[in-house]
Every structure is written in C-alpha cells, then in structure tokens.
Design a protein that fits this description.
The chain is α/β, with parallel strands linked by helices. The protein folds into three domains: about 250 residues, Rossmann fold (3-Layer(aba) Sandwich), CATH 3.40.50; about 200 residues, Glucose-6-phosphate isomerase like protein, domain 1 (Rossmann fold); about 30 residues, no CATH class. Helix content is about 45%, strand content about 10%. The longest helix has 22 residues. It starts with 8 loop residues before the first helix and ends with a helix. The structure holds 6-O-phosphono-beta-D-fructofuranose. The site of 6-O-phosphono-beta-D-fructofuranose has 14 residues, from loops. It comes from Paractinoplanes abujensis.
Length: about 550
C-alpha cells in the first residue's frame, strides 16, 4: 500500500509550520509586505477572491501547494472530470461537471456520451418550463399554474430553495415556488393551506424515489390535491398536477406519475451536487431556461478554471488548501460563510450539505482511519444580521473561525445610500477581524484602564473576501462550483471519499425500523436501548396509545 498523504514529508512540514506560526499576526504580515492585499488576490471568472487576510505566509502557501502535489490533486481532478469511478464505495463516476458541459462537447462514460443525454433532459425541461410559464400547461380544471411546489429533501431541496431565493430578482412574477422538505406535517400544511389545488403543480424530486420524507409528503400532497379538486378528479388530474425528477422510472410509475412527465438524471450525480440537473426544474420554471443556462455557464467557467489553472493561482484549490491548513493543522472546528446579500440567505444551509455530507468522514479511501481532523462545521447567516448576533464570538471569543465574506458591488435594488452603507459594513468587518484594536489604541481613545481590556480586540481572525459585481445567475453558478471544488480539494488531501454518505443512510434505515413502534395498537417490544424505550413509551402515552 502506498504511503498516506498524512505520513508524507509534506504533511510533516506543515505540522512544523503550524507550530512556528503561532504568534504571527496579520498586522505583521501586512506591515512587512505593503502589497500583500494585491498580491494575494486572485480571479476566477467574475469572482475576485482576496485571500490576503488569511493566516499564511509564502512559506506556508508553498508547503500547502506541495501537499496538494503530494496528494495528486491534479490527477484526481482530471480523473473526476473524465468520469473515472472515484466514488469507490458505490463504484460510481462523479460527474456533476458534465451537467454543465456545452451541447457540442463529448464525454464518453461507460460507453455513453453523457453530454447528449444531459442536453436531451435540459431541452425537455426547457420545453416544459416554457409551457408552465406561458400558461399553456394547464391543470385539471383548465386553469394555468400559479404555484410550483417542489417536494424533496437534502440535495433534492436545498439547492433548489437556495437558488430560487438567490435569483428571486430574475423570476417570472406570475409564478411562485414553494418547497416542502420536512416530514413534520406542519411543513406540508404551511406550504399548501392557502393554495388553490387547481393552479398548483407539484414536482416530486428524489434521486432514489425511495426517501421516506419525500414519498410521504408526495402521497399526502396527492390526497390534498384530489380532495381539493373534487370527486371527478383521478389519475388524469394527478398527471396534470404532478411531475417527477428522479433516476428511478419504475418507482415514479408505481407512485402514479406518468413517466412522460419524468425528468431523469443519473447515478453519477450526487444529491448535493444535483442542482444543475433536472433537480433544478423548479428554479428553471421560476427564472426561465435562458437564466438557467446562464447559471450553468457560470458553473462551467469555474470548472474550467479548476481543471486547467496551475495550482498556485487555482482559486478553489487555494481556498481548499487554506481550509485544510486551518482545520487539520491549526485545529479550527468550524468555518463561517457570511454572504452580504439577503438573496443568499439560504446559501450557508445549502453549503452545509455540500461540505459536511461530503467531508464528514473519518475513514480513508483504503478503509484506514483518518487520524486527523477532517470536515469542519460550516455555518453562517447573511450580513449585516449576523453582525448583531454571533460576530461577537468571532471578534473576541477564544475560537479560531475562518470566515468567507461574499459581497457584490452593485445591488439588485438600489435604494438611497443603503447599498454603500451595507458594503461599508462588509469591508469594515474583515479589517476589524484581521487587525483588531490594541490596548494602546483603546487607552488613547480615553477608555479607563479597568474597562480597556474588555475593548481590546486581538484581531488575527482569518477571512477571505469574495467580491463580484452583481448577483446574477452566472455568478451564482460560479459561487456554487467554487465551493464544490473547495470541498473536493479538501477531500483529496484527506484521502476520503467525498461522494458517499453512509452515516445518513443508517439514520434512514433506523427510522424505518422504529416507525411501527410509534403506531402499533398494542405495546411494542421494549427492545431498543433503555433511553429510547422510555421515550417511545412516553410518546405513545402522550399520543393516547
Ligand atoms: O440525506 C441523505 C440523502 O441521501 C442525500 O444525499 C440526498 O440528497 C437526500 O438524502 C435525498 O435523497 P433523494 O433525492 O434520493 O430523495
């Protein structure tokens, strides 16, 4: 067996750098290099990425790049883009990048030109969304569709919700989308109780078409539809008000959805990477096929950069390596993502699945345990709201929390001076986090010596600034692809499989096994652990069982 990356000289060198780096302050790094800001800024498509306020010097950056070479990041990237089965535990290719290849490209995987298949589905989605948007597609009573409700969970929900919210400024006014994900019945209730079934279209979105939450919600949504449409409504009505997005035609047909109205994708698209596939149908209906194509072009621009740019100026690779530096070598446990755009209010939630389901692993590709820190906790909220909530802990707490600040020079809605004020917060925060305020500065402002220590800000909190001109479909695609490839870079260094999710699968199996105990008419066997047994008993009694 070949040597693990974590046993290599490059890894050991970084451990040495981590010890030496303790105490180096961003004030000194900027003080000794007046051009640091410009020097450590890179461009990827429309995104300007300033990584100068990170806790690195040139030696650490070189050591991280050497680690990437040692981990064969370039080779593994090429293997992913070529459709090799790098998802070894499921023996699958990992080809979300093929979802955004241009129509005239060719990519043969397992004997099939997948690009032709991708565009065949995109064309069908485009034709369908045109019909819904124009009102040509009508429901059972002949009325046009006003509300599209996507039913899905995880990757079949988080991407569509996030992108729908992000691109609201581009959406057709006559269509609203809603998203039902949770099996908590309140989600279904809240999203349907004020809708007219006659003008509602459901998209049942599930890669496997076997997910408990989605199938339960879809079944109840069908009941709601049929009850609302009246006694003459049956299979015909379901065909007009239900379409499916899935890889599993048989299960779609078994559910009662006409497979003519099914939009397929492939097992080589992971759920958390699936927004640019048919999973994005609700978004395409909302914003139109042209804007959806712009989003795919945005993804593609970053894909090409990641595949072809040398590592030293390869933005996703650099940011992924910085994350490894913080997480594995400096001991950071979490990473904040702070978009200064209210439209991106679901971006952190989306990234949580992308990053944490991908890299929340403790076993390496060869089955050996990873004896170091892997996937960090991603979290965040839009600025400036976060400033008045949790930023205090980032500024003056005891934890190392690298943070990404994402902002836009042009607002989607320019009202008075608001956007300039908004962005002054954006720029001020990264400066305050990096440089803080010294005791001398605080005392010079006239603060009493007793209070002064409380007002000192240590600074040295690392941030990366991502600035684009405006939040457009293309820029959104670029941002998503950027984080996809950051995630991949980290997984490659750690030698883990970023494309399976066995931990989540266990939870699904256990919930299905336990469900009958909650509803059984007689007392079920107390054969779980003592905590679960007692909780089930209490639950049953509170439900009157
Ligand atoms: O949460 C686990 C998971 O398997 C995700 O990876 C996936 O996005 C989600 O469930 C939904 O799965 P499906 O699209 O098959 O319903």
């Amino acid at each position: 067996m070949s040597e693990h990356v974590s046993d290599s000289a490059e890894w050991l060198a970084l451990q040495g750098h981590a010890e030496k780096f303790n105490g180096v302050h961003l004030r000194d790094l900027f003080g000794s290099d007046p051009k640091r800001g410009e020097r450590l800024t890179a461009q990827v498509a429309d995104l300007t990425v300033d990584y100068s306020k990170n806790l690195v010097n040139d030696e650490v950056l070189s050591a991280l790049l050497a680690l990437a070479e040692r981990a064969k990041l370039r080779e593994r990237t090429a293997a992913m883009f070529a459709g090799e089965h790098i998802n070894v535990t499921e023996d699958r290719a990992v080809l979300h990048t093929a979802l955004r290849l241009p129509r005239d490209a060719t990519l043969e995987v397992d004997g099939q030109n997948v690009v032709a298949e991708v565009h065949e589905v995109l064309d069908r989605m485009g034709a369908f969304s045109d019909r819904v948007r124009s009102g040509e597609w009508t429901g059972h009573t002949g009325q046009r569709i006003r509300t599209v409700v996507n039913i899905g969970i995880g990757g079949s929900d988080l991407g569509p919700v996030m992108a729908y919210e992000a691109l609201k400024d581009f959406k057709a006014p006559e269509i609203e989308c809603r998203f039902i994900s949770n099996i908590d019945p309140t989600d279904l209730h809240e999203k349907t109780h004020d809708l007219d079934p006659a003008t509602t279209l459901f998209i049942v979105c599930s890669k496997t078409f076997g997910t408990q939450e989605t199938l339960t919600n879809a079944t109840e949504a069908r009941n709601w539809l049929l009850a609302g449409l009246g006694s003459d409504a049956g299979a015909d009505a379901v065909a007009k008000h239900f379409v499916a997005v899935s890889t599993n035609a048989k299960r779609v047909a078994d559910f009662g959805i006409d497979t003519e109205n099914m939009f397929g994708f492939w097992d080589w698209v992971g759920g958390r990477y699936s927004l640019p596939s048919a999973v994005g149908l609700s978004v395409m209906i909302a914003v139109g096929k042209e804007h959806f194509a712009d989003m795919l072009a945005g993804y593609r621009a970053v894909d090409e950069h990641f595949l072809n740019t040398p590592l030293e100026s390869n933005v996703p690779a650099l940011l992924g390596l910085l994350n490894v530096w913080y997480d594995t070598f400096l001991g950071a446990q979490s990473h904040a993502v702070l978009p200064y755009s209210q439209y991106l209010h679901r971006f952190a939630a989306y990234l949580q699945q992308l990053t944490m389901e991908s890299n929340g692993k403790s076993v390496r590709l060869d089955g050996s345990p990873a004896s170091f820190q892997t996937g960090e906790v991603f979290w965040g909220e839009p600025g400036t709201n976060g400033q008045h909530a949790f930023y205090q802990l980032i500024h003056q707490g005891t934890k190392l929390i690298p943070a990404d600040f994402i902002g836009f020079s042009k607002p989607n809605h320019d009202i008075g001076e608001m956007h300039d004020l908004f962005m002054s917060n954006f720029f001020a925060q990264t400066g305050a986090l990096a440089f803080g305020r010294t005791l001398d500065q605080v005392l010079a402002e006239g603060t009493s010596p007793e209070i002064a220590p409380h007002r000192v800000m240590r600074g040295n909190h690392p941030t990366t600034t991502i600035l684009a001109e405006r939040l457009t479909p293309a820029v959104l695609g670029q941002l998503i692809a950027l984080y996809e490839h950051i995630t991949f870079t980290q997984g490659t260094i750690w030698e883990i499989n970023s494309f399976d999710q066995w931990g989540v699968e266990l939870g699904k199996v256990m919930a299905n096994q336990l469900a009958p105990k909650l509803t059984a008419s007689s007392e079920p066997a107390a054969d779980d652990d003592s905590s679960t047994n007692a909780l089930i008993k209490l639950y049953r009694s509170q439900r009157g069982r």
